[in-house]
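Incident log, structure service

09:12 report received: a user says their structure output differs between two submissions of the same chain.
09:20 pulled the input from the user's history:
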Amino acid sequence: MVGYVVVSGDDWKIERVNLQRYVTVDFRKLLEREESFLNCLCEQGVRRAVQSVEEMRMVTVRFKDTSCYTMRWVWGDDSLQKRVVLLAEDGGDVEDLGMCSHELETLLDSLYDGIWVIDRHGITVRVNKAMERIAGIKASDVTGMHVLSAVELGYTETAVTLKAMEAKQPVTMFDVYRSGIRCLNTSTPIYNQAGEVWGVIACIRDMTEIEELQKKLLRYEWEARAYNERVGKDDYFTFEVPSSDLTGVQRELAKAASVNHPVLLLGETGTGKTFAASRIHELSYRQSKPFVPVNCGAIPPDLLEAELFGYEGGAFTGAKQAGKLGVVDLAEGGTVFLDEVAELPLAMQVKLLHLLDGSGYRRVGGRQQIIPDIRVIAATNHSLDSLLHSGKFRRDLYYRLCGLVVTLPALRGNPQQIKIWVDFFLKRIQRDAGKKRLLSPAVLEALCEHSWPGNLRELKTCIELMFELSETEVVGLDCLPESISSTGKRQREHRPVRLNDAVESLEKELILASLERTGSTYKTAKELGVSQATVARKAKRYRAHKDYIEHEPLY
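09:34 re-ran on a clean worker, output below:
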């Protein structure tokens, strides 16, 4: 094709000409002189008589300089009586030209992505139906308009097509149209046979749907991860316990789950704040939505805002071109758990306060104010009173969080609670490992005497270590970590013990260990050199955890 001419009205008034360089000079001059394309054809003499405009849907035009072209016209905008006259060198199949033009129109209008085409002067020559849908415009609004005028009128924010024409290479940028839809615009220059740019075609992809799909995918990944962590595992705060401290915590967590208010979890390190936050989420109406934990102290301050709220493409050096969703986006409809909230810089505390107050947030580099549907649970092991006094934590944020506070108890000085957790961790490790272990009374006593500065985290690690180190079913004192055994030893050395108590403790340890090993009171009696009745009586006295065989098996 050598080019096209845009005409309007019944007299085919010439509005715009876009022809290749090798079109004859005479024809160019004629188009510059005449206002009507029909007059041009009459002056040059059409190969055959044309009786009507409709008959000129497909004709061959031979000019006086012996050049010959095949001409076909199509409606550019029938409501405005605009036609686009297509010219091709003679020698090509006329029917092929007509078919190609028709197929091109059908193809462009059936694309899901928007198409915006400009000529070498920056004039819009074609906009497909998808572009009308995406940009919220009509083709007649912009056809024949310079692309900069479209920017001035607010149809689009950026003339990406002109940037591609200037660069003479494809340019990809984000653009926002009058409809408010954010799109990815890839503009590609089109060259003629002489290597000159004669136009640019822009392919516009609606990023709203892609971003929504990305959000859903990431949310499903978080939900799957949370589900896998829950399946087959006991939660620290789900089982029934006789400890008044823990039942009180369970009641507080259930109360917190029943309301949609920010929660502040307080407690020493390792007291199970993450599990408590997860329990609140699982008991709330948001349980089917994502639970996204974030350790505020583990993220560099410069990256905190981008991690929490996400960023737009190109917001800073090294940012992904497509942007990134933040933690708040991923938790939409669910719960965000901000562990170590006291580690947040003061500037981020202000943004968190605005989020909690319902003002929403903006992504880094973004303009749109986003109001999320989330629940925030915060936790810290610091003394907020001292932080408030030193000015490291904002009072207004503290007052926003302190309405609902749950304090998790420490293990220190609470042997009853320690025994409960020991039993819990031991059963869970036995189930996962597929083998049994029993703690000797001396080991359990040493665990109860330890101060546990690391609380549940330290206790869990200790139980796992002893479980792996023990070569027998009964875990003895030789498997205790040095820090715990030395602490217990020092405490026992400074504590007076009655002889009867020491004898009873040793007797209990020996009997229970043998029962666990043999599974029979008769075998235990034979092993220890006492009667079966004595073993049965003392096993009942020491409250053995299972019923042992009280007779010698026949096999």
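09:41 both user submissions now match this output. Likely a transient worker issue. Closing.
09:42 reviewer note: Residues 232-407 form a domain with the Rossmann fold fold (CATH 3.40.50.300). The mean pLDDT is 78.
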